[in-house]
Design a protein that fits this description.
The chain has 14 helices and no strands. With 249 residues, the protein is mainly α. It is globular, with a radius of gyration of 20 Å. About 6% of the residues have low confidence.
Length: 249
Amino acid sequence: MKKLLTLCVCLVSAALSFAQQLNEPFGFPIKPGTKEWSSLKTEEERFKAMQIPSDLLPRMTTESLVATCLNHPTFLIYITSFDLQTGYNVLANNFNGIKELENRNDAEKCLVIIYNSVGAKEFNSAQPFIDKNLWTFKIAWIELLLSQDKLIKTLDINEKNNLLSLSMQKFAMKISSEEFSGFDYLSTTLLIARIMKSIGSIEFEFEYNNNESLRKFIETAQAPDSKTFDSIHQLAHAYVIRLKSQSNI
């Protein structure tokens, strides 16, 4: 009887925990444009005002947490730094939502679903919680989140291969559309390069070990020279072609 009672208590506790999960993104009540924002004088005060309350954070589903990170009022800070990774680090070090996201094992998978919905003109309407404003910059922000090593490592080899193919499709979409420019190509290329590094193909590893520009790009997201930029795409293309040929054997 005691064991049965204990089991019932556990089941009720689990049910309550599930019921308390938050399925919608955090709304950032204090952000640029609000009355409260104008009273904040320092960057530290502004970042503090945009934290997710500690009692809500662990209850948020990964889907709602991803949407919250994508909708962060100052996500564009990533373009104000010397390189993309430094810009990412500024927000990651000052926003508890990203810190929590980096510890979710399904974060990358949730981001991939949203990334897959990106079109040449807009986000798919199936993403109702994603703020569509500044959407070309938002796509680059998604790619920067996707390209973090800690998240890429949560994928198995098949998932990495699928994300590589998807990112190459997005790159082709960008270069064929007037909506995008050279800056937009950089975040996609970073994602492709970091996936290739994580996969560890022999050809890419050789290039990485012998190309300082490539190493610097992968480690810091500092823009590579044009030769390295082209090499990344050539190596990724050759890798995908080889995968397709092997699957037909």
